[in-house]
Write a structure and sequence with these properties.
By secondary structure, the protein is an alpha/beta fold. Helices cover about 45% and strands about 15% of the residues. It folds into three domains: about 5-305, Rossmann fold (3-Layer(aba) Sandwich); about 330-520, Thiamin diphosphate (ThDP)-binding fold, Pyr/PP domains (Rossmann fold, 3-Layer(aba) Sandwich), CATH 3.40.50; about 530-660, Rossmann fold.
């Protein structure tokens, strides 16, 4: 029996309707409205293989409008992905079901990225499209030639990140990027006319995009638009005029179908109108078999691809399998060890942003998969080195992206680069602007991606730029994000070690906070061991019978060592602990933590920022020395003194505490 197009599409609609109704929670309207577009895409155009969701040359499908997650789960189930069963769909939004309220990235599942915070999926898609261009250049267009497809809502396009991401995509002429705009003119509050009167055609054409407009319920128009977009020489937005809640007699085209179950009575009417005479979650065999046949086509596509790949020379095959798919780090440990030995001999005073640049320059010699960039601060972040080759619209055979003043977009693009597979992205801006990146950083951590954020100008040590640029609460804010390693190295040795940890990390992103001002070399002895791996270690101790433990990070380790010298002069013994990464220190054994932080000594933490993340180390009588107000505009040494972070003032505070 021949299955009609609308029956395939209705299978998505009713799985979505029934799952939302059973959960008594969710967004049925968007899947009902966009199921025709999705059906055309998966049936005729998308290259994917449910039996191998990680095939490197698959087309990527991103549901940026993550509130409509049942559209994606329905497609994965119908096309035969093992990750989503009918029981999972019945347990939509329930504990331990892969069918979460919004799509949550899981490797080898078909869910390409975590979406829901609107605009993020769009940003990820730009990163994926850039990654494809980079690997196509490295591997050849017969081996890497996939496309990235996105479904975006009006909310995605309202969010400011969409401007940043779409502007960059147009600038780079990412012809492999195709976005379907679900132009249903309805948002949660009601008609989009309440808040938006954009001319989308002019907007996207000004970015350098193609703009196509179609009826999102017309099979031929949808397919023709995709074919046209596939042959374009720049990215394409297809504005799909759709009806939200399509098929609902009383709720279609209305906000009432957006974010709430339709209700049993209305669902009965939808079944009648769309001639779907089946029970909840029941997909007739002929319809399910047709969907499974659509999914099974992918196995042949991958098989044909493998035949081409196997004809390539062994060096190329090894490069793809080990370097890009296998993420082999080569001689990284040996490189870091040699650099540490070299700088132990010279003991240079360098800003840690310079130290990071040294690390990047050396690492890029051995890791071609490292792709960097900066939000228009390359010279300040020191993210661009002599080994940086610029990626632009005419040449993707490089390793450095000028993101422009687009911090939020940059961070989302970095997530996309990591999600594509095989590449390790890093990107830089000032620490104060980590606030602009924060939603994307949170998603890096949630997804467990190897993404490296470089944040220079990490404290009041940047001086004259003043309180608008001096981070106070940013370090504590980043440390509050679960599964994010926040590093603040104190010298070249620690910077090299932090970079090594970040690159070795498999499921945790890293934020490396770096100084503008020069810092001295702090380690009295060379260690082949990576001491930063334990999060904290003893730098110097004047006596094992010490009365004070000075704990600091970054530039304040130098300050702590100076305080230690002053305390020694007045017969107060102490030890200095450098704590470049609190998150790693928290993972150490209780014995190690007790050894580093003596139970009986006065604990004093020193960091030129908010003290909130240090309180846990103080015990009952400890001192948290930092800044809980905004900075000042002045030379940095004067600011330190003004804000009571001078050697003399710290020593007085310690003496007062010891007398209690």
């Amino acid at each position: 029996m021949n299955v009609k197009f609308n029956q395939l599409s209705n299978a998505i609609r009713f799985l979505s309707i029934d799952a939302v109704q059973k959960a008594n929670s969710g967004h049925p309207g968007m899947p009902m409205g966009m199921s025709d577009v999705a059906t055309v895409l998966f049936k005729y155009h998308l290259r994917f293989n449910p039996s191998n969701p990680e095939w490197i040359n698959r087309d990527r499908f991103i549901l940026s409008a993550g509130h409509g997650s049942m559209l994606l789960y329905s497609l994965l189930y119908l096309t035969g992905y093992k990750s989503v069963s009918i029981e999972d769909i019945k347990n939509f939004r329930q504990l331990n079901s892969i069918c979460a309220g919004h799509p949550e990235y899981k490797k080898n599942s078909g869910i390409e990225t975590t979406t829901g915070p609107l605009g993020q999926g769009l940003g990820n898609s730009v990163g994926m499209a850039i990654a494809e261009e980079i690997l196509r250049k490295k591997m050849g267009s017969d081996i890497i030639n996939n496309k990235t497809y996105v479904i975006a809502s009006d909310g995605d396009l309202m969010e400011g990140i969409s401007h940043e991401a779409m502007s960059l995509a147009g600038h780079l002429k990412l012809k492999n990027l195709i976005v379907f705009f679900d132009n249903n003119k309805i948002s949660i509050d009601g008609s989009t006319s309440l808040s938006v009167s954009d001319n989308y055609k002019k907007r996207f054409e000004s970015y350098g995009w193609n703009f196509l407009e179609i009826n999102g319920h017309n099979e031929k128009q949808i397919s023709k638009a995709i074919s046209k977009a596939s042959k374009a020489n720049k990215p394409t937005l297809i504005s799909c005029k759709t009806v939200i809640g399509f098929g609902s007699p009383n709720k279609s085209g209305k906000a009432s179908s957006h974010g709430s179950p339709l209700g049993e009575e209305e669902i009965s009417l939808v079944r009648k109108k769309l001639k779907w005479n089946f029970k909840p979650f029941e997909i007739p065999k002929n319809i399910l078999n047709t969907w499974r046949e659509i999914g099974q086509k992918g196995a042949k596509l991958e098989e044909n691809w493998k035949e081409k790949f196997n004809k390539k020379n062994n060096n190329l095959k090894l490069k793809l399998n080990q370097t890009y798919i296998g993420s082999d780090l080569g001689d990284l440990e040996d490189l870091i060890r040699k650099e540490k030995i070299k700088y132990f001999d010279t003991k240079p005073s360098l800003a840690t942003r310079q130290c990071s640049s040294i690390a990047i320059e050396n690492i890029t010699n051995i890791l071609p998969q490292l792709i960097g960039g900066s939000a228009d601060l390359s010279g300040s972040n020191n993210t661009k080195t002599q080994n940086s080759k610029i990626i632009n619209s005419k040449n993707f055979d490089g390793n450095y992206i000028h993101f422009g003043v687009r911090e939020h977009g940059m961070a989302a693009v970095m997530n996309g680069l990591a999600l594509y597979g095989g590449l390790i992205p890093y990107g830089g801006t000032f620490l104060i602007f980590s606030d602009y990146c924060r939603p994307s950083i949170r998603l890096s951590a949630l997804m467990g991606l190897k993404v490296i954020y470089i944040f220079s100008h990490d404290s009041i040590g940047l001086g004259e730029d003043g309180p608008t640029h001096q981070p106070i609460e940013q370090l504590s804010g980043l440390r509050a994000i679960p599964n994010l390693n926040v590093f603040r190295p104190a010298d070249i040795n620690e910077t090299l070690e932090c970079w090594e940890i970040a690159l070795k990390s498999k499921n945790t992103p890293s934020a490396i906070a770096l100084s503008r001002q020069k810092l001295p070399y702090i380690n009295p002895a060379l260690s082949e061991e990576n001491k930063c791996e334990k999060g904290a270690y003893i730098v110097n101790i004047t006596s094992h019978d010490n009365k004070v433990t000075l704990i600091a990070s970054g530039s304040e380790v130098e300050l702590a060592l100076d305080v230690q010298k002053k305390l020694k002069e007045i017969d107060i013994e102490s030890k200095v602990v450098s704590m470049p990464c609190q998150e790693l220190f928290e993972k150490q054994s209780e014995d190690y933590k007790k050894d580093i932080l003596d139970r009986d000594s006065l604990k004093v933490t020193i960091e030129a920022g908010s003290v909130s993340s240090w309180q846990k180390y103080l015990g009952d009588d400890g001192l948290a020395l930092g800044i809980d107000k905004f900075g000042e505009s002045a030379p940095y040494k004067k600011i330190y003194d003004h804000l009571s972070l001078s050697v003399e003032k710290i020593v007085v505070r310690i003496q007062q505490s010891l007398r209690k």
